[in-house]
Amino acid sequence: MSLADSDRELVVDELGRDPTPAEAALFENLWSEHCAYRSSRPLLGAFDSEGDQVVVGPGDDAAVVALPEPSGDGYSDTYITLGVESHNHPSYVDPFDGAATGVGGIVRDTLSMGAYPIALADSLYFGGFDREHSRYLFEGVVEGISHYGNCIGVPTVAGSVDFHPDYEGNPLVNVACVGLTDADRLVTAVAQEPGNKLVLVGNATGRDGLGGASFASEDLSEDAETEDRPAVQVGDPYSEKLLIEANEVLVEESLVQSARDLGAAGLGGASSELVAKGGLGAEIELDRVHQREPNMNALEILLAESQERMCYEVRPGDVDRVREVAEKFDLGCSVIGEVTDGNYVCTFEGETVVDAPAEFLGDGAPMNDLPAEEPAEPAVDRPDVPLADAFESVVGSPTTASKRWVYRQYDHEVGVRTSVLPGDDAALVAVRETEGDDGVGTGLAISAGADPLWTECAPYDGARAVALENATNLAAKGATPLAAVDCLNGGNPEKPDVYGGFTGIVDGLADMCSDLSVPVVGGNVSLYNDSPSGPIPPTPTVAMVGTKAGYDAPPMAAADEGELLLVGDRSLGSEGDGAQPLGGSEYLARNDGSDRFPELPEDPAGFVSALAAVADADHVRATHDVSHGGLAVALAEMVHEDAGLRVALPEQGGLDDERAQTAFLFHEQPGRVLIQTTDPDAVREAFVGVAPVASIGEGTADGRLRLTTAWTDLAYDADEIAGMRSVIADTME
Known about the structure:
This protein is α+β, with helices and mostly antiparallel strands. It is built from 26 helices and 28 strands.
């Protein structure tokens, strides 16, 4: 990839001369789709990022959000940071290092805000699980995430894994990080004052990752796994851990005026963006950068994406102390230049190699005006499958099956904050820093993921469903949604059908988050996820957080007593035959069918609010979101050795025949939840005028799922269900 002719003309006009080789390479990377969002930025204005809780919104390394007081009276001075990044192309070329450095990058984004990382969430998407190459990528990515996260001591507490044939040539690795800070520690990426020094702290600079930003802005080729390997960075988690602790000291001692981690476009990207945000410039001597390889030239030093490095703005009088801290943690430290009120200037061996306005470097790229085609509505083709076959294939699908093989490799309890572990609807971590005299602090719930089947079927409504499902996950644990970030993944935007689907997911996500009053405070865009096997489905990963008083939550696992209620299913009481469409469902994916996407709830915000309020009631024994795989999978996930469920599908609202009850069992309308309770009337009262409530069964002490329908019965014990759901572990071990 090289600087396009039209872009070169703009650069020549601005500079009044031809760019130097270093300038041309810097513009190529900073004006790439990956850095400049040339195809997506025109769409991102749809998101509402405002709210009393929002301290720092989109545009910085991570967003900053104030936590509510545990009493519910306003917001506290305790803040969380929230960010999400993609490392998609690198994870195809080198799954271990690609995924590992994705973790490292989002953690450093957290550090640059003056925060300490407390939790990670990863959302992973691969080709068909029956493909050997997909399993190779899957294994390498999980190993890379677990190795890096475990070594740096940040727990991976939430996430998702999906398998879909259209990711075969281009997997997605989306990683979110939550950090903890407060009003006194907050740092931003806005340079403060001319005369302050720019200090590079961390690993020495090598030649790895050269051109990573431009590599991420083009389709993967057939030989990408060999030809593009030099563009993939190599991580060192032990250095990252030292950097985390050194950063903590620097922030605690107020030695950092502004900060930026070195990610895309390396030193050139971080330092130019830092000063541009402050409306300032810089003078940098590239010779001063500490290097680990001999004979590096200016372009290599400027653009290498070597990992575990931070760029700090430091007052001149604090430089010696910063150097002492770096030496204490055995980290390299170079004073590479200073902030100015002029251009962004870099010299190498006495020669000026870059001299350009910083703002033009960061924001001068023209936006793309691309054609978009509306996606066609899917045809109706509902296969007729025997119920037992359908149940076993959906419950045993790799996408809906247990992900324990994945998360057992992660240290999800390091830091002793995690009170609800992976495998539930949402994780819950304790923010003890908010505890008052009563000992009650804020529980932070975290949910992350998407569903490519939904957004492939209906980009707009599917994205609305993704946002609602993440909010439902939080509410099912008694948490009220607070804020969200998104990682918007798409194929080649120059294809009108691909760009049409991408436009749909942006608008759908924005509209549902607005309906839920959840500000979208930041995110990431990854386009050109296209390969010889075709584009990926439009994939809007959402990482959403919510809060509650205290650190306890109702479990997902069934109890041996209590009535089982299904809340929110639009099939109940609807006119006609009551059957919801099956579009976007795992049932259709397993049986080669198609259908339109289900209708969403009329009052999603009311549903989420009512669920969060009722979930922590003393009479509630268990709660579980109903989504991927439908009611069938949700029921199977609740059963365990000590408690089972006796369930009868309702025969109301037209659900009295085989076709309607099959749809009822497998459709994936979001905004539904199972609540097991000893006081069903209290639950019904909580949802009056908000969502339908139906009693479908009760808990038992025999560890079996008994399912009665209008035409047949099914029965499975906990071991049989566990056997169906262990397909990933059985294959990978």
